[in-house]
Amino acid sequence: MTGVPMTAAARVIRDVAVVDGDSGAGAELAEPVDVVIEGEHIARIEARGTTADADVDVDHVIDGVGRLLLPGFIDAHAHADGLLFDPDVQLALLRQGVTTVIGGQDGVSYAPGDGAYASEYFAAINGPHPGYRGGGIRELLASYDGTTAVNQALLVPGGTVRREICGRSTQAANPAELAAMIALVAEGLADGAVGLSTGLDYVPGAFASTDELACLAEPVATAGGVYVSHMRGGYESGSQAGIDEIRAIAQHSGVAVHVSHFHAEPHLVHGLMAGLSASGVDASFDAYPYTRGCSILAMPVLPASITVRPTAEVLALLADPGERARLLDEWFPSIVDYPSLGPDWPEQLALAHIAAPEFAWAHGLTIGAAAARAGTTPAEFTLDVLAASRLEVNVVMAVRYARSDADLASILAHRRAMGGSDGIFVGAHPHPRARGSFARYLRSLVVDHGAMSWADAAALVSTRAADRFGLGARGRVRAGAVADLVLVDPARVADRATYDAPLHLAEGIDDVLVAGVPVLAGGLLTGATPGRGIRRSNRPEA
């Protein structure tokens, strides 16, 4: 057979079944094809064997026999803002097929500003950024260009914006402050951010009113971005209040909205999403395939009026006998009312990251078990470990009412659902979602339970997020698309990270390309760094 002319830079993925997020048929029925990549894009998809061996350098051929080719997975809610440069983090993501993460989540990240607030308050979530020295979204996005194997898109973090303009104030923004915040959001969008995020259980976002948030969403709507929110109210049975606030923000501004880690009973998720749609609100959400959560310990166990202060002041307060007694006697009895916790909260919170070496023995233990080993009460132990770690502690949080795999499948089958791990890579005993979520979607939903087709899974983990967040010509396997591509072995793909052993890498995804460049080969990093900071594009690149 006569070969098709190819450029010197061309690569071929041979004899592979293509799964596209727009296709309706199951990929297991598709005829295998050859996919030709030239430069950063897919040049063409041809009948198997059309490209002759003589036309291709053997080093540029990937054997796809028995595997499926999917568009690179997009993590719609990730916390790799500062750690994406770490090869171990890149490997953990790529072994799940994740080629792009969306950061700046929960209202807190490094830009705009000098990054100090995020590096302090969210140290146990986002980690330190090794290169960002201040500026804005433009500078932060540039830090990812050619320095990592995985792409990073960013949201303007609303809490960081408030911190830049209003300092640590707990009061409503005055007109001048509000105007300055709106301008800072607009600047971040002009620099390439894909939207605005808020974290309304965190500080200072917790002090922002609905009216303030609605005004900040105005430039987001104008730019065609998305308002992304960790809702106020604790989720689960309290989701209605958070959704009502999101509806008010959307109806004021006209912005498209996205609910972060929307975890509640399936009938609540479906009902509340239907309610938003009936109100004319363009809404979507992400959800990870686990029932436990993860966050900084200080958020549920200390008042926001305390955690909004500089760390040095909080530590001084925790060391003050009178203030400590007040917290133990008056505050801690009230945390049982936190929506996701209850009277057995010490057994619901397991220690994932503790910055104090003297408490390293407690990693993986619940606060109740660790307190018993230390010979103190759970409340006293909590204050001790926070003080010793300068508040840099995160915990895996069990919920009172765990959902079944069937419930999770029902939530993730929603046509507006997207894959989002909420993955946190900081910690000796982290939540397994950071290393398992995307493989778990495929294994549980497609292979084990048949809850969705491979094409539906591709839409869940890639296509919808690419379209929603304006990530250019990504999320599809077709000519002209950016060649962010994942080869999946359907017989082997599986998550291996568990709550007891959370550092195990996923299996069954051994070859991944970013912008046409192999970044994972044979399950190992190649050392190539074609990743970039993705700037918002409201029209696909091709």
Protein model, in words:
- This protein is α/β, with parallel strands linked by helices and 542 residues long.
- The protein folds into two domains: 73-291 and 403-527, Metal-dependent hydrolases (TIM Barrel); 295-397, no CATH class.
- Helices cover 33% and strands 19% of the residues.
- Strands 1, 2, 3, 4, 5, 20, 21, 22 and 23 form a nine-stranded mixed sheet that branches. Strands 10-11-12-13-14-18 form a six-stranded parallel sheet. Strands 6-8-9-24 form a four-stranded parallel sheet.
- Helix 5 (158-166) crosses helix 6 (175-190), helix 9 (239-253) runs parallel beside helix 10 (266-278) and helix 16 (367-374) packs across helix 17.
- The model has no long low-confidence stretch (mean pLDDT 94).
